[in-house]
Every structure is written in structure tokens, then in C-alpha cells.
Amino acid sequence: MSAEAPLLAVENLRTEFYTDKETVRAVDDVNFRIERGETLGIVGESGSGKSVTARSIMGLVESPGNVLPESSIRLDGEELTEKSESEYRGIRGSEVTMVFQDPLTSLNPVYTVGNQLKETLRLHRDLDGQTLTDTAIGLLEDVGIPDAARRISEYPHEFSGGMQQRAVIALALACDPELLICDEPTTALDVTIQAQILELLAEIQVERDIGIMFITHDMGVIAEVADRVAVMYAGEIVESAPVRSLYSDPAHPYTNGLLDSIPGNQPGGRELTTIEGEVPIPNGAATHCRFAPRCPKAFEECYELAPEPLPTTAGKDDHTAACLLFPEDMKREDAVDEHRAANTEGTDE
Ligand code: SF4
């Protein structure tokens, strides 16, 4: 475990699912890092590979799915892809935990919230007696549940939707994880409760200095929570940038399409735009830009060459786009050549 290692480093992540008819590359050569105290927002439509990326990190990809051997997922410098299932079980829930969209998938309806918290604390932190109860109450207080000493004896159905999600976050924090993966945690909540949960996550992050991977299809939510953003499309990260840079200077036509489809985001009262068509199923190595059939800027080479993530302008390494129009300070044919060269390098490795 080295001091300089990022909290999470994902490299060449490929996750495939096998069916009778085809092999689906749900995640295709995904690379990113998350530092301690940083929130990486992962955004994209349904079917873009966001949740499969999260499940791959959690070791929760089940047959007929498979994380391919060249993939690397290092948590605090430790390679997770080489862990056995029992080793992974120890990591899940203690070093990395996940909050899902529907709190009722994480809470057991037949046990009180307190019982579920205490069970987690007993298993992972070896607490018992009054310390166990006090720690469970403290966790509920930390996530803003009022009258926690009383509510600890209530069942999940006695909590409102927002309180249920707070209880799930308390469960996720019970073992003091280093990385919290939130998969659309506010999608099922109304707007005011959503804002409260986002605020809570921001407070927790500052207090505990944890890394957060926040998955959503909502560009508005990403603007609130993320330090960096990775935009996913058809299994690939098509743009990656610090959050301010992504909103002030979006590069990839898909990102522009997502931003234009946020209600109220159209300059001069322009009509809300939509991205026509659907995310394709990536069934094999990319041979061209997977966004081309939906892209308003597509040109001939887009159907012949798979773009690589390159800086949007030369030297701007923290803002990359997998689009043949970039780097934008190059002539188009030179930019295409850069992608062709990067493509060949990738094949040679
Ligand atoms: S590579 Fe071509 S088709 Fe793909 S996003 Fe860029 S311009 Fe559009």
C-alpha cells in the first residue's frame, strides 16, 4: 500500500455478458481514478454501463457476466480483481460500500432499522452491548434522523422515503468505508428530499474524507455533487473533466446533447432538445464511434475509426474527449491521425 496511490484506480476495465446470441461489452476499456475526499460523478443514459462499472468494482458481477483478466481495480493500491469471493466479502461493506436507488432493496422489512445497523456493526466492527446500541444511534444521528434513540426500534416501513435513504446511508457508513458508491441514490426521491440527501453526502465526505463515486443520469445532480465528471456512452467514457470545465466548455457532442436536454438550460428560450435514437448494445470491440448514428456532427471517418480519449486541446490532460473532432486546436485530419495513432498503440499493447 503506497502513500501516493489514489484511493481507487480503475484501468482497462472490461466487463462482458454472454448470451446465446452475442457477447455484450457492457463496460469497454474504462479508466478513471478517485482520490480521497473527491467525488467522481458518472453520468449517462440507461444502458451506458454506469451501474455495471459500479458492480464490477464491488465484485458483484455474476454469471453470465465476467470482468476480463486484463482489467485492474486497485483500492488503496490493493488489486481487487485477484481477490477470492470470501476476500471480496470482507472488503464489501468495510472498505467500499454502495447505496442503491431504492432504499427498500437494502433494508430488510422484517427487522427494525436498529437491528440491521447493529448486525452490520457486530459483523464488521466486533462491537457488542451498550456500545453497539450507542454506535447505532450515533450513526442515525450522523445522517440526520431526529429522535434517533426512539426511531432505532422502528421498522423500515415506518420511515419516509427520505428517512429510509438516510438509514441506508447510515448502514453504508457503519463500517467506516474509504469509498462510497452511490447508484442513483436520489432518483426515487422528490426534489426537496433529494437536495437534503445531496447535502448530507457532501457533509459526510468532508467529515470522513472518503471518496465518492456518484452515478446518475441527471446532469443537474452531477453539477451539485461532483468534483470531476466522467460521461459514459455505450460502455465507454466519452468525456472526462473537472466539473466546472465540463459545464463551461463541454466537448463531446453527446455531452452537449445531455446538457441541452436539461429543462431550462436552453439559451434564449430555445426548445428543449432531445438526443434521437437509443444507446446501442456494444457487442464487440469498437470499430467506429458508437455515437455516430446519433451524432449531429458525424463525418465519414466517424464510421471507420474508434476515437480514443485525447485532450480536448493540446496539453489539457485533465479534460479528455473520445471524439475525432478533438484536440480542437488541430486541423481535423491531424486530429483524426492522432486518434488513429492512439488506436494502433492500444492494439499493440
Ligand atoms: S467521433 Fe464523430 S460521430 Fe463520434 S462524437 Fe465525434 S463527431 Fe460525433
From TrEMBL:
Residues 8-259 form the ABC transporter domain. Keywords: ATP-binding, Cell membrane, Ion transport, Membrane, Nucleotide-binding, Translocase, Transport. Its EC number is 7.2.2.11. It catalyses: Ni(2+)(out) + ATP + H2O = Ni(2+)(in) + ADP + phosphate + H(+). GO terms for cellular component: plasma membrane. SUPFAM superfamilies: P-loop containing nucleoside triphosphate hydrolases (SSF52540). It comes from the Archaea. One of its GO terms (molecular function) is ABC-type nickel transporter activity. This is Nickel import system ATP-binding protein NikD. It comes from Halolamina pelagica.
